[in-house]
User: Fold these one by one.
Assistant:
Number 1:
Amino acid sequence: MTGDAFYLLAGIWALAILAVFILAIRLSYRIEVRSPALTNLGGFPRKAMMFHTITNMNVARDEETQAVRRRMYRLLLIVLAGFVVMGGLVSDPFLRVRA
């Protein structure tokens, strides 16, 4: 694989993984809205409480919210798999780009 093709593929891969991560963050915000203990009452925007939603801490226990959590888990697993695959490609000596 030539250097230019590898860099183009890596850039597209990075954008795809970033898009999936943004979808997971949006689901985390939806879980926060559905959970009374995680609702933002301050009025100021804040970071997503992904640690709380991943660990099911103060999250509403209804079936719909838990289904959204499972969907968020799947998206985060896709992100993790993306890092593993790209790390494997970069560290494989047979697929390295030769200058």
Note: Residues 29 and 45 are 11 Å apart (CA to CA).
Number 2:
Amino acid sequence: MRAASSVLLFVALAGTACGNTAPAGDTPPETRSSAMTARIPVGSAAPRTPAPAPLTPVPPLSSAGSPRPDGAAFFTDPAAVSTEWLRQWCTLDWREPMNTNLDRAARYQTPAAAKDDRRTGDNADTYRSMREQQLSSGCDEVTATASPEAPQSADVAYLVLSARRVNFSAGVAFESEQVRSVRRVLRQADGRWLVDIRVEAG
């Protein structure tokens, strides 16, 4: 889709940088590429000063009215499932109930991954700050590619997920950032592929 850190314009949640990946048991959070080493939020957009240059807006879609792929055939493609998971996780709107993005994303995850993401989701304080500042975000340019460092098999895939995220305050875009995560994706007994836990950077 939680431990809160400092609140400037936005609330940033804990994360660690991801580089090359290896299929280890530890699960560091997603990272984003930036000129500065920074942490990517899980439930809220990261604090940043307004961008000096105009941004191409990516409207955060209303999750309640946005169609979500749900057919059995959709879940036969691990890359498609992973990109949809990231899209749902990334879409935030201050008008929604707390952690609604995690609720939506859980449809494409294993229970273990959903539980892990919720552990670092919004809490009452970060959610209150999000509502007060009318924060929202949306992603486009979502991609999923096989990790060249990690082994792939008929039932396990390691995918590098990335997207461009645009953050808004009161409907005005103020920041564009890249988000990146490496996830294990598992084929279930019923044949569905589901996004599993994060993997450790190599």
Note: The chain has four helices and seven strands.
Number 3:
Amino acid sequence: MFSFVFWVLLCWFIVNVIWMWFVLKNQTYQRVFAWINVCAVVIGFWVYYGVAHDPSGIAIWFIWLNWINVVLTCLQFYFGYRKLNN
């Protein structure tokens, strides 16, 4: 389960980063995907701390992915809720 969730979160992160940069001005999409990222972050930390895993291997990458996803979520909330001047 640990490595499966890692690979799912990694694929989601890559798709989300690429997608995010193409629709920076669409605040609705940014908000929706920021909230989806909140769910991904919660699941990621829950799996990292709640499931037994070998401390070597992908564990360090898993925690880095979780924290980078936190930063991405903050960016998406910023782009989603900022005031646009037209």
Note: The chain has a mean pLDDT of 88.
